[in-house]
Predict the structure.
Amino acid sequence: MKSGFVAVAGRPNVGKSTLVNALCGEKIAITSKVPNTTRRRLFGVAHGPDYQLALVDLPGFQRPMDPLTERMQRTVDSSFEDVDAVLLVVDARAHIGSGDRFVARRVFGLEKPVIIALNKVDRLKPAHIATQMKAAAALGDFHALHPVSAKTKEGVGELRGDLVYLLPEGPAYFPSEQTTDLALEERIAEVIREKALHLTREEVPHAISVEVEEIEEKRLRALVYCETESQKGILVGKKGAMVREIGTRARPEVEALLGHPVFLELQVKVRPKWRRDPRMLERLGL
C-alpha cells in the first residue's frame, strides 16, 4: 500500500479545488469564479486498490488584508510541514508571472518533489499550450509537468498516477468510504455558500459565510452571514426571491449528503465586520 499527503498550491482562482474534485472522482470542495473561495484546509482522499492519496486543498497564496485572510495564509504556510509532495497548479489561460513565481519559490524551497499541473487546457490551441508549458517549466526543478483540464478530466488520470508514484509505502490514514475530513455540517454549509457565491454580485461574495444551526430528520436550518444591511438586501432579494433560489440550488446536494429529503430553511443575518472578529472566525472554524 502506498499512502501519503500532497499539498495543492497555487495562486487564487487557478482551479485547485476543481482539480482536487477531479482527482478524487467526486465533489469534495466547492468552486466558483470568485478568488479565495477556498477558506480552510481540507483533505480530499482518492482511494485505489493499492494506494490512498490524500490531497490537501489549500486557500490560494495571498497578501493578508484582514484577520480572515491572515488565518488563511497561516493555514497555507503550516500545511507544508508534513506532506510527501506538492502539486503546484498554474492557469494555462492566464499569464504565468510574478504571482506564480512567488508561490513557486515557496514550494520549491521545501525540498520535496513537485509536480506542476498546467490547468484549464481544454479548448486551447496546441501552440498556446506548448508556450505555457515552457513558461511553467521555468518555475523550478519539477518532477513532472502535466497539461490537464480539471473541467473535462483530460490528463487527470495520468496526473493521479504520477502523484501516487511519489507516495511512500504506508498505512491507510482514512477509512475506505471516507473521501474528506470535513464534518457533515461543514460540507452542507459550504454547499450553501457556493450557491450564494454563484448568484450574488461582486460586492457580496467575500462577506458571505454560512453556519448550519440545526439538523433535524426533515428540516435543516442554516444561517447565512453578511456584513451590511445592503448585502443582506441583495442576499434576501425582492420578496425573498434570492434566498429562496439559493436554497433551491443547494437542496439537491444537501439531500445527497444527508441521504434523504429535507426542508432547507435559510436565514440571512448581518454580522458587521465578522471577518475581523476572532471569536466569529473561531465559531465558523476558519
In short: The chain has a mean pLDDT of 90. DSSP finds nine helices and nine strands in the chain. The CA atoms of residues 211 and 223 lie 5 Å apart.
